[in-house]
Amino acid sequence: MDLFAFPPLAALLQFVYSLVSGLAALVTPLAGSAAAALAIVILTLIVRTLLIPVSISQVKAEWHRRRIAPKLKALQDRYKKKPQLLQEKTMALYKAENVSPFAGFLPTLLQAPVVSLVYALFLHPSIAGEPNTLLTAQLGPVTLGSSVFTAGWPGVLVFLALFAVMSVVAWLSRRTAQRLALPGTDATGLLPQILSWLPFLSVAFAAFVPLAAALYLATTTAWTLVERALLRRRYWGDRGAAGAVASPAR
Length: 250
Fold this sequence. Notes:
Layout: H1 7-31, H2 35-50, H3 52-67, H4 69-78, H5 83-97, H6 106-121, E1 126-127, E2 130-131, E3 138-139, E4 142-143, H7 155-179, H8 190-195, H9 201-206, H10 211-236, H11 239-242
Antiparallel strand pairs: 1-2, 3-4
Helix pairs in contact: 1-2, 1-6, 2-10, 3-10, 4-5, 6-10, 7-10
């Protein structure tokens, strides 16, 4: 069953198709045959720009979680043999401090529909009854609708270069997460170590989607790395490294 046959989703897919096609036509004098690929990058930048307020809220929430980390650790030590009471006390602390334990997931959740639309855009041979001309758009020797398994030679080199960039970004993200592990937590434990490898999931996912979706993932993960560093500097200052407990700048 094709979910995008449902009229509201079909209309949304057509809108994204028109947007990407329009952006591609706009940058064709600059990018030539790579115009559609550049349009995907531009679309990603538009989405991430719109999400900047959400990212700011996320960074502030992240700081507040660091601020209350000593109180959480005290609760864990006090109620470690009473898990139900510990959960209640923990949620009460989050509520009293006006801190959300789930704020970090919001930007990812908000982008999931966009990734799905870009993915669908390069799987459908026709959009609104018309041929999908984006399927023939290329980046070097490979079409944007190809995956690493269908790219052939030398198209696979485009994917390998993209995966290499994404792997570097994932590695830097992992290093940053380890460096900024919450005070009072065991960053060397099994679960934190497993979670620290989550940035590499985007690399694995990119291996199974069309090149256009992989381009979106590569651009958004690089944006996240740079944006998060800049926002932490703006809203944390030197306090993140010092472990201070003052609230971030408003």
